[in-house]
Amino acid sequence: MTVSPDHLDAAVADGSEIMKQFVPASPFVALLGVQLEEITDGAATLLVPYRPELTTVGTMMHGGLIAAAADIGVMVAAWAGRPVPDKLRGVTASLSLNFIAPLMEDGLRVRAHRLSTGRRTSHVRCEMYSESGDALVASATGTYQVG
Q1: What domains are there in the chain, each with its CATH number?
Q2: Whole-structure pTM over 0.85, yes or no?
Q3: Scanning 32, 87, 92, 147, which has the fewest C-beta atoms within 10 Å of its C-beta?
Q4: Spatial strand order in the sheet of 35-40
């Protein structure tokens, strides 16, 4: 199933509710196994459980997975708590990512929070940690446009 605005209930209270619908319905997000753990006004925590299919060499999680998880975190935090726009659409305008340490045979926890909110554009910071040890794996900033 492809997610389209027709599959989402735009009559909900805010962007957090849109993200609660979107995350489990998105085919790519589901392929990665991303789970929405928590969402509050301007912030979100996501989890990507470890799976051997997501590794690059041995048990090291692929850097592309970490980048995709950062992008998803930026999106969710940008929508979190915002008013629902007339048009249910959004796009990442920029993403800058710094890898800090390899993630070995462990899940990835993404903590994203909105730094600033404009009329349509938000700036978001994401930190990615190992699920079990809470070791910092990567840090990202992104700009996301809603509506």
Answers
A1: 5-146 (3.10.129.10)
A2: yes
A3: 87
A4: 35-40, 43-48, 108-117, 121-130, 136-146, 90-99
